[in-house]
Design brief:
By secondary structure, this protein is mainly alpha-helical. It has helices at about 1-5, 20-35, 50-65, 65-80, 85-95, 115-125, 125-135, 140-145, 170-195, 200-220, 225-240, 250-255, 265-275, 280-305, 305-330, 335-355, 360-365, 380-385, 390-400, 405-410, 430-440, 450-475; strands at about 15, 45-50. It has a domain at about 60-245. A two-stranded parallel ribbon has the order 1-2. Strand 1 (about 15), helix 2 and strand 2 form a beta-alpha-beta unit. The longest helix is centred in the last third of the chain and has 26 residues, at about 450-475.
């Protein structure tokens, strides 16, 4: 229904989370649309699994090893934020211990691990204040040990690990929390990557993937006992989703090739870091990605109408060169045949080595990589070079536009902590599009003066209020003059 409402748009990829029902949806769409003229390689790359959701699954497996410690800290934070009086007492403890951190503590949403990281990261800065609170507030230990059955946050006490029954956090809990938060920061930063505006996330993905794998492997070997146990759990989940390239969408790798700073050389380097003990597998994977890129480019060439004219022009130029070569043999003496053969061979070799005989993809890959400058703008580079790479630039445009996460669209419903009512799932496609486009506009690189916009809104409200008052005054009956 959405595709029909949107005018049957061209589908390149669909980014979804890991719900099993989504596999059925993708199979249905492939079956119904694979014969469309604008379908690329029969939708071989249609299904893109959400990068942020897989990260969430990996980290939550590690969270299981720290359930009780996290639950105790969650209970302590919840107690402090449950009333203004308790919060004032906690602030007084912070002042007495000389804690100057202005960020304050925050309570997590138990179903979102990134909020759990933020809670732990902030809470450990106030460890001394929480310890002092046990002496300053007699109700702290007793209240944290009570069962808050009136909570209506949609998360059971069992899901919270029994936070309200475990008492205040111990010294061991704080030590575990600090270790865990330091390690989890890597994953938190990787998740934040998916929220960056105006950036090709497919290019960032591989660098984050290699960093995460290296960190997990290092903790499995060299980390403390607590972290090793957690790292092994996370590694098992990592291998399930990202351990085998055959289970992944190859566009995640093709995207890096379309960055002229890296191309296939950068891809080879990353594979060497991931599979450092298996050079043969590195070459196999690079060839695999290059084959997918070649097939993708050839498919665009077949569907590109202007490419037919380019090919015809190339053929006519070749014919003209062939005709010129034939005419030059007229009137040549027998003694010059040897020099003529050498000249023709030389011309033939020059023609084979000429860039004109290579495809756009071959020319792009054979050229020198661009310098890795901080100010380098990938999209601007492709815009400028689209004249040289007519077809390849269109492939790059589609690949670099692929979202690797659904977080961007979800955040349209929870910007600045605001959440729409439960009927948000009933929003029309037009409204969803408007919300996403508005958020993209607000996060764009162009400077937006929010203060000016707010002033304009206040001015409009003021005018509206004055108009309403004038309307009310004009609608009132006119009073008669009294007798003098």
């Amino acid at each position: 229904m959405c595709l029909l409402e949107w005018g049957r748009p061209k589908m390149f990829t669909i980014t979804l989370d890991n719900a099993s029902s989504n596999n059925v949806v993708v199979s249905y769409l492939k079956r119904k649309t694979k014969n469309r003229s604008d379908t690329i390689l029969e939708h071989e790359f249609l299904h893109m699994r959400c990068y942020a959701h897989i990260l969430n699954l990996i980290v939550r497996d590690g969270l299981k090893e720290y359930d009780q410690s996290i639950a105790r800290i969650r209970g302590a934070v919840k107690y402090v934020k449950s009333s203004p009086q308790r919060l004032n007492t906690f602030k007084q403890c912070c002042d007495n211990d000389g804690i100057t951190c202005k960020s304050g503590v925050c309570l997590d949403v138990a179903t979102r691990w990134n909020s759990t990281y933020m809670m732990l990261d902030r809470a450990e800065k106030f460890q001394k204040a929480f310890e002092r609170l046990e002496d300053e507030d007699p109700g702290y230990i007793k209240s944290v040990g009570e069962d808050d059955s009136d909570d209506d946050d949609g998360v059971s006490e069992l899901d919270r690990g029994g936070a309200s029954k475990l008492g205040p956090p111990t010294m061991d809990d704080w030590d575990k929390s600090r270790l865990f938060a330091n390690f989890l920061k890597l994953f938190y930063d990787a998740t934040c990557v998916s929220r960056r505006p105006i950036m090709s996330l497919a290019i960032v993905f591989l660098f984050e993937l290699a960093t995460i794998q290296a960190a997990i492997n290092m903790e499995c070997v060299e980390g403390p006992h607590n972290l090793r146990t957690m790292a092994f759990s996370m590694k098992s989940k990592y291998e399930k989703y990202w351990g085998n390239i055959e289970k992944m969408n190859l566009l995640l790798y093709v995207g890096l090739v379309f960055d002229p700073r890296y191309k296939l050389r950068g891809l080879t380097y990353i594979f060497e870091g991931i599979y450092e003990d298996n050079s043969s597998k590195v070459f196999m994977l690079v060839d695999w990605v290059q084959d997918a890129l070649t097939r993708l480019y050839d498919s665009y060439c077949e569907n590109d109408e202007s490419n037919v004219g380019i090919q015809d022009q190339t053929i006519s130029q070749s014919s003209e060169r062939g005709a010129g070569s034939t005419s030059s043999t007229v009137g040549v003496g027998q003694g010059d045949f040897k020099s003529l053969i050498h000249a023709q061979i030389k011309k033939c070799l020059e023609s084979d080595n000429s860039l004109a005989t290579k495809s756009e993809l071959e020319r792009y890959l054979s050229e020198k990589c661009e310098e890795d400058d901080v100010k380098f703008d990938l999209l601007t580079w492709w815009k400028v070079n689209s004249i040289r790479y007519c077809v390849l630039s269109r492939v790059a445009r589609d690949v670099l536009a692929v979202p690797i996460s659904t977080v961007a669209s979800e955040s349209a419903f929870s910007t600045a902590g605001r959440v729409l009512d439960p009927f948000r799932s009933s929003l029309s496609p037009l409204m969803v599009e408007a919300l996403i486009c508005t958020q993209n506009w607000l996060r764009s690189s162009a400077p937006i003066n929010i203060r000016t916009l707010i002033d304009d809104v206040e001015e409009f409200e003021k005018i509206d209020t004055e108009l309403m008052e004038d309307l009310e005054n004009s609608s009132r009956p006119t009073s008669l003059a009294g007798d003098n």
